[in-house]
Amino acid sequence: MTRKLVGFAGIFSALLACLVVLVIGSPSAQSEEAQFVFGTPDEPAEAWLLSAGGRIYDRWWDALDRDEPKETHPAYPADGNKSGSATWRCKECHGWDYRGRDGRYGSGSHYTGIKGINGAKGRDPALIAKLLRDAPHGYSAEMIKDDELARIAAFVSRGQDDTARFVAPETGAVKGDKERGKAIFQSVCAACHGFQGKLLNWGSTKKPAYVGTEANAAPDEVLHKIRNSHPGAAMINLRAFAIEDAAAVLAYAKTLPQK
Ligand code: HEC
Ligand code: HEC
Asked: Residue 43 pLDDT more than 80?
C-alpha cells in the first residue's frame, strides 16, 4: 500500500516537473544557447575570436545584446542614403568586402566615398581599438566594452578575408567550387536552413529573404556571414576552415531558390 502511494507520488511529481518545463521552458538549456550567442569561451581559439570580431563589424548591438543606437552616426555623409542605427554598422561605411569606395560600395545606395579597412590589415590591434574610441568613430565603452573592442580590432588586423578574390567587385560574380559547396550546405547549413535554404525567412511572406535570395543580392555579405555567423543568432560559422570552403558554399547558395 505504502509502495503504491510512493509510486503515485513519484508519477505525480514527474508530471509536475514536465508541466514546469512545458510552462517556463528548461532554464539551463536556454542559458547555454545565450552563452553560445553572447558569451565567451574559457579559452578562446583564434577562430572564435576573429568570428566574434566579425559579428561586431555587423549589427554590433545584436551581437553584444546592447541598445540599438537611435541617432545617425556623425561621420556618416550628409548626402548618404541611410540614417539611424544602420549608419553605426562598420560595414555601412567600409563595405562587406572591407574595401569601402574601392569595392562593392563604390556606387549604389550604400555609397559613402569612405575608404576601406583593408589598409589596416596587420596593424597593432591596440592602435585600431584607440581609433574606434576616438573621432570620427566615437564608439563609447557603453556601446562596445574594452574586451569586445579588442575582438573587432583583432578582426580588422588579422581576420579580414580577401573577399575580392571570390566576389568580383564590379559584377558580384562568385568564384567557388559548387559541388564542394553543395556537400557542405546539405550537411551543415541545411540543419537550420533546409535543403532549399528556405526554412528560415528573414524577409516577409510577400517579399521573402532566404539564403538563395541573399546570396544573389549581396554575395559579399553572405560570405561574411558564413565566415563570422549572424549577430544575435545561434548560427555556426566556417571560420575554422579554409576560406575556399566558405566561397564554395556561397557559390552553391547562389543556385538556391530566391523566392
Ligand atoms: C559613419 C561611418 C563610419 C563607420 C560606421 C565606421 N567607420 Fe571606420 N572610418 C570612417 C572614416 C571617415 C574613416 C577615415 C577614413 C580616411 O582617413 O579617409 C575611417 C577609418 C577607419 C579605419 C582606418 C583605415 C586606414 O586605412 O587607416 C579603420 C581600421 C576603421 N575605420 C574601422 C572601423 C570599424 C572596425 C568600424 C566599426 C566598429 C568602423 N570603422 C565604423 C568612417 C566610419
Ligand atoms: C544552427 C543553425 C544554423 C546553421 C547550421 C546555419 N545557420 Fe544561417 N542562420 C541561422 C539563424 C538562426 C539565422 C538568423 C535568421 C533570422 O535573422 O531570422 C541565420 C542567418 C543566416 C543568414 C543571413 C540572414 C540575414 O539577415 O542576412 C545567412 C545568409 C545564413 N544564415 C546562411 C547560412 C549558411 C550558408 C550556413 C552554412 C554554412 C548556415 N547559415 C548555417 C541558423 C543557422
From this structure: yes
Instruction: Please check whether residue 144 is in contact with residue 132, taking contact to mean a CB–CB distance below 8 angstroms.
Output: yes
For domain 178-253, which architecture applies? Orthogonal Bundle (1.10)
Nine-digit cell string for 58:
555587423
Q: What is the reported pTM? A: 0.91
Torsion sign, CA atoms 215, 216, 217, 220:
positive
pLDDT at 164: 97
CA distance 249 to 184: 7
Give the residue whose CA is nearest to atom 40 of ligand 2: 189
Whether 132 lines ligand 2, by a CB cut-off of 6 Å, is no
Cell of 109: 545606395
Find, among 128, 67, 129, 117, the residue nearest to 92 by Cα: 117
Q: Measured between alpha carbons, how far is 238 from 243 in angstroms, rounded to an integer?
A: 8
Residue 7 pLDDT more than 50? no
Domain residues of the chain, as ranges? 46-160, 178-253
CA of 103 to the centre of ligand 2 (A): 24
Q: 234 CB less than 6 Å from ligand 2?
A: yes
Ligand 2 neighbourhood includes 235 CB (under 6 angstroms): yes
Of the chain, the percentage scoring pLDDT greater than 70 comes to 88
